[in-house]
Amino acid sequence: MDTENPSAPPCAQSRIPGKNHPDGQRTAGVVHDNVRHTESFTVIGNHLLQHQELSLLAIGLACYIQSVRQGTAVDIKTLADRFPEGPTRIAAALRELEAHGYLRRTRERTPTGRIVTRTVSCNRPGHRAARETPSRRPARRTAPDEPAPRKRLPAVPQPSCPSPTLLQAAVDVLAGLRRHDPRLLLSATDAEHLAPGVAAWLERDLTPTAVRHALTEGLPAEPLIRPAAFLAHRLATQLPPPPPFRPPASPAPEPRHPLQTCDGCDRAFRSPTPGLCRDCNTRLVTTA
Length: 288
What we know:
It is built from 11 helices and 4 strands. The chain is mainly alpha-helical.
């Protein structure tokens, strides 16, 4: 809008009265008295101006909408206040323009929760540029041999003590899932990502069999497009609570041996077998 179109054809020239006319009279119909615009003008296509199905009100309304600056309000109430036509006729004209692709109106919710109508004016319906907006750029094309970017897997729970033995037990659980359902065949990368989540289950006093049952029970009937993502979701959402706290067991008391009479000094001492007391044993070792 508002830019000069240097490729536009030169202005139509008025026919000179009598020139090249057999009767020497002015031709019937409109005669254009044109002056080239250099500022404050809008380029409108003849496909709109001479549209065979649009009403005159719809054509004029489309020209006005294409001439205003971006961000100008063009809702029914604003247009009815601007022009003598009432809201009913203006609403009908806007529906005409929508039906023929000159307008697109969508209802959107703002970040504050308010519902607003977003209006897009198309100066050439069906043209690719009219369907693209800055917020919707064409998707990046990849070469035929370029792999598509891999989606990241959801996060999984982490064990409090990720020991190598615990993580290896978790990998063994994941490697065995395909024996219960072939759809749960995992790559080494997927198993490495999921292993901490399985380890977090194992350290909560669950056996490998219990974890395997929880991951394979009630699988959907449809194909699993991303089995690793499905398992990551289950590991995170169905994580059992920690086991109840159990204080460490007290050490076993030392056994209480019966009383024995020392063979050297007749002193009583406790020992599982008869013999010498501690002092007599010490003296015997020293003397020897």
